[in-house]
């Protein structure tokens, strides 16, 4: 064989060249190459972070969810003051101050879910927090009721990232068998936000209703600073950044060079280089089509999203109704019994709910993973999403009992009676809410973001509408029969987790979502 032919044959079978240390001009590029070669075992993979780093991320995201949902209720105590200033007399228009915000919480995921999938969770968190801060400031300066309602809606849109992406962020850094406790503790943030927001609102109201929005702007700005210290958790985005670092290395930074604007812009150049316009278009189309198809085309998603939405609506119904039971005018309503607490103490009427949420979170944090591991062991070490529904079933049974206790002690006993009813209701509500969140994430993986978006949209619509009619319902039916109606509606769904526990896997396989 001629020498030229042998050379060509040898060249044809040579393996492709890998980037070597001589072609990578910085330590960061070489480290990125090592991380990508075995990303599953790499410390750059969020699943491999140190435990302290994971929990710090979880608590920061929980704080983000807490602040976002606090904004939904912190304005409720100031509704009457805002109505008086703007000359509005329709009570239902006043309730829209809270409802428009909650509706925005449901609309936001359609914008920020695809952003988080394309460019990572941190881009979604930080960009939304900047806008959230600005719109909260604008609410504090609103010139009329119409402007306030529109601004409140956009506050909800930009505040939605914490409640929406929080569970996904926990799933990014925790494996399924260890996810129950962090998700349970994370959920305490978004769920206690509306309760504590109402309590704070009554005290902030002494400075005027505009300060309730001003305080939100301050909290959102502080939270933006906290988020700046959190690293990206979405593994595909981390891999894109590593690839970009390899292809576009910069010299190693020394001293203040790390703070140069050129380096800052270069490090974020991966967002344009690694995500094409077609990718972005496809992601946004899927973001708008997947949640409706899941919600209305998948019976498993529909049933649990519906109950998830109902229990969230009950939470907001309590928030706008408890001041009617415990407060003095203008917080109470004529013809309906009230304990007549003054403004200085009426915020304490939410303590029963706070206690129930705390006990429920403690129960879920200690039992959720233990139940999941025990049932998985019985199933040959294979976990199933339905194992999350044990606590759902318990919560669904407890919640109607709490509603009965609340309704039939209100106005008939000492105020401690309805407080105990609140605590029992919120305990059951939180157990069900927590475990349904876990179930949705596990059951529809890798489309958890779409499933969460559909459930969030459903819960926000019901939480927007139901509280508008709460004062009228209790005025016409009274505390006892009004709460009985809510309890009976909740009791209808009690069989659902038992049926799903037995037949859930078959139903999921039959109605498998293909994206």
From TrEMBL:
Residues 57-508 form the Major facilitator superfamily (MFS) profile domain. It is a multi-pass membrane protein. SUPFAM superfamilies: MFS general substrate transporter (SSF103473). Its main location: membrane. Residues 1-12 have a biased composition (Basic and acidic residues). Signal peptide: none annotated. GO terms for cellular component: plasma membrane. Residues 1-26 are annotated as: Disordered. It is found in: Cell membrane. The chain crosses the membrane at residues 57-81, 93-112, 124-143, 149-171, 183-205, 211-230, 300-325, 345-366, 387-407, 480-501. InterPro entries: MFS (IPR011701), MFS_dom (IPR020846), MFS_trans_sf (IPR036259). Keywords: Cell membrane, Membrane, Transmembrane, Transmembrane helix, Transport. GO terms for molecular function: transmembrane transporter activity. Pfam families: MFS_1 (PF07690). Belongs to the major facilitator superfamily. DHA1 family. Polyamines/proton antiporter (TC 2.A.1.2.16) subfamily. This is Putative polyamine transport-related protein.
């Amino acid at each position: 064989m001629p020498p030229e032919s042998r050379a060509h044959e040898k060249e044809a079978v040579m393996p492709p060249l890998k980037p070597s240390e001589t072609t990578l001009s910085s330590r960061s590029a070489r480290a990125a190459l090592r991380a990508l070669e075995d990303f599953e075992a790499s410390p750059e993979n969020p699943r491999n972070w140190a435990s302290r780093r994971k929990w710090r991320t979880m608590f920061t995201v929980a704080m983000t969810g807490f602040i976002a949902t606090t904004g939904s209720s912190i304005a409720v105590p100031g509704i009457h003051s805002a109505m008086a200033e703007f000359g509005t007399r329709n009570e239902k228009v006043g309730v829209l101050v809270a409802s428009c915000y909650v509706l925005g919480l449901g609309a936001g995921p359609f914008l920020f879910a695809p952003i988080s999938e394309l460019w990572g969770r941190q881009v979604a968190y930080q960009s939304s927090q900047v806008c959230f801060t600005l719109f909260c400031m604008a609410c504090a300066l609103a010139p009329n009721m119409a402007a306030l309602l529109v601004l409140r809606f956009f506050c909800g849109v930009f505040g939605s990232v914490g409640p929406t992406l929080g569970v996904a962020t926990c799933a990014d850094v925790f494996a399924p068998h260890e996810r129950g406790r962090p998700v349970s503790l994370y959920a305490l943030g978004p769920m206690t936000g509306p309760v504590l927001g109402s309590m704070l609102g009554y005290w902030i109201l002494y400075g005027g209703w505009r300060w309730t929005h001003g305080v939100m702007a301050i909290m959102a700005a502080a939270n933006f600073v906290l988020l700046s210290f959190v690293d990206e958790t979405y593994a595909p985005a981390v891999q894109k950044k590593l690839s970009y670092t390899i292809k576009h290395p910069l010299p190693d930074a020394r001293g203040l060079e790390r703070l140069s604007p050129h380096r800052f812009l270069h490090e974020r150049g991966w967002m344009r280089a690694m995500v094409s316009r077609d990718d972005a278009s496809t992601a946004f189309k899927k973001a708008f089509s997947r949640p409706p198809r899941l919600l209305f085309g998948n019976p498993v998603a529909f049933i649990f999203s519906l109950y998830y939405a109902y229990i969230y609506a009950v939470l907001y119904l309590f928030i706008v109704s408890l001041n009617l039971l415990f407060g003095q005018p203008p917080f109470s309503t004529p013809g309906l019994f009230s304990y007549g607490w003054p403004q200085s103490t009426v915020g304490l009427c939410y303590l029963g709910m706070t206690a129930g949420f705390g006990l429920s979170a403690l129960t879920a944090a200690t039992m959720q993973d233990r139940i999941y591991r025990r049932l998985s062991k019985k199933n040959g070490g294979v976990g199933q999403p339905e194992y999350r529904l044990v606590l759902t079933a318990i919560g669904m049974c407890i919640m109607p009992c709490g509603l009965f206790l609340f309704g039939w002690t209100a106005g008939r006993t000492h105020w401690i009676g309805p407080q105990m009813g609140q605590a029992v209701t919120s305990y059951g509500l939180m157990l069900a809410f927590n475990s349904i969140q876990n179930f949705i994430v596990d059951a529809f993986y890798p489309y958890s973001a779409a499933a969460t978006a559909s459930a969030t949209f459903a819960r926000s619509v019901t939480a927007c509408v139901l509280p508008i009619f709460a004062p009228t319902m209790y005025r016409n039916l009274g505390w006892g029969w009004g709460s009985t109606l809510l309890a009976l509606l909740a009791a209808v769904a009690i069989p659902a987790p038992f049926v799903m526990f037995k037949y859930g896997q078959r139903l999921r396989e039959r109605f498998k979502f293909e994206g």
